[in-house]
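Closing statement on the magnesium ion sub-project.
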Amino acid sequence: MTRPRLLVVDDDADSCAAVAEALRAEGYEVEVAQDGRAALALAENQMVDAVISDIRMPDLDGLGLLRGLREACPEVSVILMTAFGTVEAALQAIKAGAYDYVSKPLHLEELLLTVRRALERRRLVREVQASREALRDRYQLDNIVGVSPGMIDVFKLIARVAPTRSPVLISGESGTGKEVVARALHFNGPRAAAPFVTINCAGLAEGLLESELFGHVRGAYTGAIAARRGLFEVGDGGTVFLDEIGDISPNTQAKLLRVLGEQEVKPVGGNHSVRVDVRVIAATNKDLRGEIRAGRFREDLFYRLNVVSIHLPPLRERREDIPVLAHHFLRKYAEANHKAIEGFAPEAMARLEAHPWPGNVRELENAIERAVAVGRHPIVLPEDLPSHLVSLPFSPAEPGTFGTRLPSLDELTRQHLVRVLAAADGNKTRAAEILGVDRRTLYRMLARYAMTAPDAPAEG
Ligand SMILES: Nc1ncnc2c1ncn2[C@@H]1O[C@H](COP(=O)(O)OP(=O)(O)OP(=O)(O)O)[C@@H](O)[C@H]1O
Ligand SMILES: [Mg+2]
């Protein structure tokens, strides 16, 4: 491992040397520059991981340097040093994409902590990029984003089974990406040029579903004035995606079983079967094994569909995916709306990372879409996020949470509650223990701050 390389920029030679010395003592490689232009040239020519720069400098100042760095080497983290009176400029810098700021006179511990955090984030960003590139090369799954072990398993499975004809059963909570996975299976396989037909089994009444799936002959029932091809026929040669499979009636289940076994469909009211060649992919957010035990789902059909099973974990169980997904959606919606929003303020990202996301990826996507719609800065700020996310782990070691404003006791209390609830995974009993209050008091506080705990167990 090479040592991280830092660049310290300050027009005051003494202060520059002192900071550089302190950082070298920590084992970093340190370059120095005494003005913005020299710093920019240095950063462009030599790989640096982070820049620690004074704000007030003649010629190209800290903000100018920041802008230049965002252009020339966008991955470099920038930490600004602010003297009394330049805090406003520092806040402006954060909005323009600086990683953080530290105030002068410098506290060595604070500086070191900030540098460590900046480097850690840079390492993560690099790792994520590397694994995304590797996956894209191998699987061309541009539209499915993920770096968590759970999602990497999903990518591998897709790559392995997309070329085959095996039925696949995709399970996972609502909004976890079941449909995107179904599409990836189709579009990365030999049937990509043939139809991909989606049938929402929950949306149709019993009789209608059958005729949707298998078609009907003329006069099959009142109103059937012409024969109609079923979706299995329409999808011939391609893929039929049976969404919400857990919702089909026993009668239709039996018919579906026959189609899967014999690769033929018999239109409603007809006597002849039609041969079809379709690959079947099904999805459900129900626990089908539970449905089988309850007598609502046929076990034989389950085994037919579940030749390969792909499970999508809920987003709260793969938090590493949150930043990558957030950036993915930011690019998507910024482009669609012609807005130049390129990143997240650290505090905004912290909020995204702390939220339990009961609506999974769909909820995250909606939150980012909204942030892009309302955002008026080059980066997403906490206030651009939906209001129920406006709550953040607070720690006195993290300056900037409230900017320079001193928070009220209510604000602090609310923030602390959110933090504790997140740490307790929404478990109110545990949260109450941590807070040193009884459950009743906790409930009163939650009501007072109009908060609900994520995934809280039913009140007992
Ligand atoms: N890994 C991912 N990468 C990028 N986008 C994703 C990912 N997972 C989900 N999405 C996006 O999130 C939204 C919800 O995904 P999708 O419709 O596939 O969920 P679902 O599991 O089918 O949900 P439901 O059970 O409610 O139908 C879609 O807009 C989809 O594009
Ligand atoms: Mg779906």
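Residues 135-139, 392-400, 453-460 have pLDDT under 50 and may be disordered. With this model delivered, the sub-project is considered complete and its resources will be redirected to Aim 3.
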